[in-house]
Amino acid sequence: MLNIKQKLIKFTLSFVAMLTISACDQIKDFSSLKNVMGKNVIDVAILLPMSGPEAELSKEYAQMIKIGLSDSAQSKIRVTTYDSSSEKKLTLSLDKILEKGTDIIVGPIYSRATKEVAKKVKGKGTIVLSLSNNPVLADNQVFVYGHAPMRQLEKLTNHFLDNEYKNYIALLPAGRYSSSVSKILQSMITSRDATLARIEFYGNAPEDIERAISVVSNNVDSLNENAFNIKKPVILIADDAATLELMYGSVRKYNLDKKAIIAGDSRADIDYSEPVDITFTGSLNITDTNLTMRSMKAGISHISFMHAVSYDAGKMLGTYIGQTYNKNRLLNRMNAAEPFIGISGSIYFVDSIAQRNYDIISKDNGKYINISKPAIHEHKPGLADM
After folding, report:
1. What is the pTM of this model?
2. Contact, 150 vs 181, CB < 8 A?
3. Contact of 75 with 323, CB cutoff 8 Å
């Protein structure tokens, strides 16, 4: 255990780092600020759509990155946020970032903006931790940190296949992406001697979703009436929160989450007025922190998976930077095999592409349980808002 002197030193370092982070957005004169009180300052840029329709969520992600840095920083870090909401604003932001000699960029989220950032930083000393999930953009100084929903859906499907579930239904939004997803699921499921009993696509309108849920409900009833089917069918879903909220209303209407297992990637867990039983990929590591309470004080009412990814990005960087910044040492830490244990999963990089080990989480009547391990981790509703 740490003695009192060590605890005091650790607290002082954390407090100084937090003050530096929270005050950094107010700093305007960059030319003489590479050293503060004789100590090196690490410049971190957060590059997200800070204006326009995505501004509200981007500001929350930026706040989570800062909280993560505050929780792990052992050195002086100055954070400045920049706007990437349009091509013009992205260009202006990058000019400022590079003129300042910024050490690390966190962001952007989307592939197109990340591609532009990668092109501009090439040959310079800046390291990029992009929140994109496009592996094509990764190189030795651009790390692709975003999560890939399809990888989560694959892990989830394999979990049920390993546990001898034989009947599956894919319930997906109409579109080219969903068509590709359904083909991957079909191949995975049939190769394990299980059945993809139905693939149902739906449109954006509430009546389309209602119709799709009704069709799926009838199929579930038929599967459950078969005397050879011992286990419930698994309904695999993949969509965003706004659509899922409409879908869950119909799921409740047809009692579908009681007749079948509703399963999806981390986006499946949303704030919904009435509990819907679901199974999804994620992590309950957040339950060992007071992050939910602190984020609420910062104006963030719900920690989605993207919020968790943002927090982990900040905390991982602060941890890996250590007490003094050294670019090569940071790159070595990023490329090491040892994973960073975050609230979005255990994270490591292969060829500068983030790999995450997810848990399988069951949400039953509002309670979250980790069902991917023998040691079951259960907690009260409202603590894990992943």
Report:
1. 0.78
2. yes
3. yes
Cα three-residue angle 8-9-14, rounded to 5 degrees: 100
> What is the Cβ-side half-sphere exposure of residue 303, based on CA atoms within 13 angstroms?
32
CA distance linking residue 117 with residue 94, whole number of Å: 7
Query: Which ranges of the chain have pLDDT less than 70?
Result: 1-39, 373-386
Report in angstroms the alpha-carbon separations of 237 from 183, 190, 209. Answer: 14, 18, 12
Q: If one looks up domain 149-282+359-379 in CATH, what number appears?
A: 3.40.50.2300
pLDDT for position 235:
98
Model confidence pLDDT, tens digit, residues 279-313: 999 888 877 788 988 998 889 988 888 999 999 99
pLDDT digits (tens, 9 = 90+) for 343-356: 988 999 999 999 98
Query: What dotted CATH number matches 4-146+288-357?
Result: 3.40.50.2300
For 43, list phi and psi in degrees, rounded to 5.
-95, 120
Q: In the chain, which segments carry CATH 3.40.50.2300?
A: 4-146+288-357, 149-282+359-379
Cα distances (Å, whole numbers) of residue 219 to 165, 222, 225, 256, 261: 16, 5, 10, 11, 13
